[in-house]
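Chapter review. Work through the record for Transposon Tf2-7 polyprotein before attempting the end-of-chapter questions.
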Amino acid sequence: MSSQNLFVTVDPDSVSIAPSLPAEVSQTLTALKTLIMAVNHNLQVAIGQIHNNTADLATANNSLQNHDGGITQMEGQVKALENIISALAGAPQGGPKLNLPEKFDGSNKDKAVSFRVAVSHYLRVSYPQASVEEQIAFIISCLEGKAHEWLEPYLEEDVVNNHPVAWLHSINGFWLQFNARWNVQNKTENYRAKFKTLKQTKSVQDYYKDFQTYSQNLGYNDISLRDFFYDGLSLKIKEMLMAQDYDHNASNVSLENLADKALKIDQRLEQFQAQHKGQTNSSGSKSGTTLSTGALGNVTRDKLTVGDKVYMIGPDGKARKGTISKIGKNAKGMSIPTVKWNDGTVVESSFKSLKKDSHPVDPSPVQPKSSNSGPSPMDLDSAGKGKKPIVCSTCGGKGHYASQCPSNTYSGYEAHLSENESENGDL
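C-alpha cells for Transposon Tf2-7 polyprotein:
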C-alpha cells in the first residue's frame, strides 16, 4: 500500500490469484482488484476536489473579512459625517447671536458701504448655509424708504409678472446694481474737500477716525498726513503737546506716533475732568478747569511774544516787571526770551519763570535835580491839595497799595507795609 497526503490507497496487487484456484474464485478476485483500483481513483478525485473547495472557502473567508473591514470603516465615516451635519445644523443656535444690521433707507449714500459690509457679515456668520434666494430676500427685508422703492418695479416684474430679473437671483449681480444706484459718485473728490476742512471738534478718537476715512486714496505721504493731522488738532491738545516739549516735526515721528500721543493726552484730560467735575479753582474764578502740576505734570501758560509786558517773582517775594525785547534759541534749539526789566537791565530768562503782566507799569523817567531849592510846581500842587501819589512798594506800580498788588496772587507771599506806606494809604 502507498500513502498520499490525505489518504492511504489499497494496493490491488495485495490480492493474489493462485492458478490452482477455481475459475470462479479467480474471476471474483480479479473483479475485486478492479474495484479496489476504482475506489482508489475515486477517492483521489474526491480528495482533490475537497482541496480545491477548501482553497475557495479560504479565499471567500478572506473576502468576507475584507468586506467586514470595509463596512466597519464606512460606518465610522458615516458617523463622522453625521457629527459634522449635526454641528452645522446646530451652529446658529450655539454660536453668538448678532444684532440685525441697521436698515438702509437711501437718504444718506455715505452709509451704503457700511450697510453692505454689515449685511454680508451677518449672513456669513449667522446663516452660512443660506441659499442665494434666501440671502437676497434677507437683504431686501433690510431696505426701506427710497431704497426699497427703487426695488419695487423690479420685484413686480420678477415676482408678480413672472418675468425673471437675472440680478435678483445672483448675489454679485444684486450688489453691482446696488452699488451703481447708491454708491457716492466722485467719492475721492468729496473726501478731498472734507479732508481739507477737517478740524477736531469732538474727541481725538472721532477726529482720527474721520481723518483716516477722508485721507484714503488721496496720495499724501505719511509726513504730509502727519502735518495735516497736527494742524487739525484742537488748541487744547496742541498746548499739551507743547507743554510736554513734544516735537511733532521730528524725523522719527509718524502719523501713527502723533495720533497715539494725542489720544493718550485726550484720555488723560477726560479722566482728569471726570475726577474734578464740578470743582472750581482756589481763587474762586469762573468754572474753567485749571490743570495742576501734580495731575498731568504740566501747567497751561499764556503764550508770550516780543513786546509783551511780563513779570517774575524774585527771591524776596516781590514782582520784577519788564518787557520781552527779543526771543532767540539756545544750544538745544529751545526758545529763550530776553527781557528788558524796568530797572534798565537786560537779561535772558525762561518762559517758565515769566508770567504775562495784567497791570503793567512803564519805567519812571529819572528827573534831574533842580538847582534851586524848594519844591517843584507839581509838589506844590500836591501839597496844596493835601495828597501824595500812591506807589506800590511791592512792584513799584502806581495806583494801588501793596496789599492790593496783583503779584501777591501769583507769588504766594504777603506784602508788608511800612508805617509811612500805611499812613499814605490812610490819606
